[in-house]
């Protein structure tokens, strides 16, 4: 094999390796949630652990997400009166009702949940009859569904929950959405959801720049104000593009090397 053939073979190998690097470059992570435990909860009240990863802390003016518990209605991301427990998780989270989201988009919080409570409109919520969830969604009413996740939770003595989370007192309100998969240790995990399930619950959610109020008596929640926002992204959280550019540079270098060798070979022949 001549020198030119060997050089071209080497350049081809480099190009193939670069293409492999591009194929192996990790895709951007999607928001995901884990709840433990998520089944057999004490209906009189139990504290559960909730952890999230793959969220984007810079999204939507760094508003972060709400982590809530309750049935899921069509207005789940604008009606603060729906929930029995709620936390505001964002990069600057501190103080009562808030928690910090890390620069990498992770968080770990606790929620105390009960099977039965009364929401802010005076409606009795019974999570032994209606499917209830731990959910996340973009804070302050932002219509960005990329930060949505949900995991169904159940209590001891629960009846078979109504399919789709429909409320037995409002049978026409059912919807659909993606749920979680059971994980080890009695916990569950979930990836983003886009459906609109139904239900009702209670606890106020915070406004921008203010500490989230602690949950008060049933019916004391105030409506969530929909705030102006600048949606900074519409896809999954961005990650560094260096694998793509590295692979591109390798391919370009291989092509230029092969071209130079071909030109040299032609010049020698002439």
From TrEMBL:
This protein's record includes keyword Transmembrane helix: yes
Domain of life: Bacteria
Composition-biased stretches (Gly residues): 172-188
UniProt keyword annotations, A-Z: Membrane, Signal, Transmembrane, Transmembrane helix
Comp. bias regions, Low complexity: 157-171, 189-215
Signal peptide: 1-25
Listed transmembrane segments: 242-262
UniProt xrefs under Gene3D superfamilies: Neocarzinostatin-like
Chain spans, region Disordered: 147-215
SUPFAM superfamilies according to UniProt: Actinoxanthin-like
InterPro entries on file: Neocarzinostatin-like (IPR027273)
Annotated protein name in UniProt: IPT/TIG domain-containing protein
Species annotation: Thermomonospora curvata (strain ATCC 19995 / DSM 43183 / JCM 3096 / KCTC 9072 / NBRC 15933 / NCIMB 10081 / Henssen B9)
């Amino acid at each position: 094999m001549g020198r030119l053939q060997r050089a071209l073979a080497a350049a081809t190998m480099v190009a193939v390796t670069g293409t492999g690097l591009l194929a192996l470059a990790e895709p951007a992570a999607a928001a995901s949630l884990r709840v433990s435990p998520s089944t057999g909860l004490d209906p009189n009240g139990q504290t559960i652990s909730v952890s999230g990863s793959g969220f984007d802390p810079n999204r939507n003016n760094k508003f972060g997400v709400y982590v809530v518990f309750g049935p899921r209605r069509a207005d789940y991301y604008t009606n603060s009166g729906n929930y029995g427990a709620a936390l505001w998780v964002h990069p600057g989270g501190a103080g009562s009702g808030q928690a910090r989201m890390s620069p990498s988009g992770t968080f770990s919080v606790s929620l105390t949940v009960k099977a039965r409570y009364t929401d802010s409109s005076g409606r009795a919520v019974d999570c032994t009859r209606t499917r209830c969830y731990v959910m996340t969604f973009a804070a302050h009413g932002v219509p960005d569904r990329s930060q949505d996740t949900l995991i169904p939770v159940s209590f001891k003595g629960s009846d078979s929950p109504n399919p789709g989370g429909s409320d037995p007192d409002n049978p026409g309100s059912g919807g659909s959405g993606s749920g979680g998969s059971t994980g080890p240790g009695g916990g569950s995990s979930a990836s983003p959801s886009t459906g609109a399930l139904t239900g009702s619950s209670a606890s106020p959610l915070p406004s921008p720049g203010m500490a989230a109020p602690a949950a008060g008596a049933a019916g004391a929640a105030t409506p969530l104000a929909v705030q102006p926002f600048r949606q900074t992204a519409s896809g999954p959280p961005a990650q560094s593009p260096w694998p793509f550019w590295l692979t591109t540079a390798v391919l370009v270098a291989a092509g230029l090397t092969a071209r130079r060798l071909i030109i040299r070979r032609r010049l020698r022949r002439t």
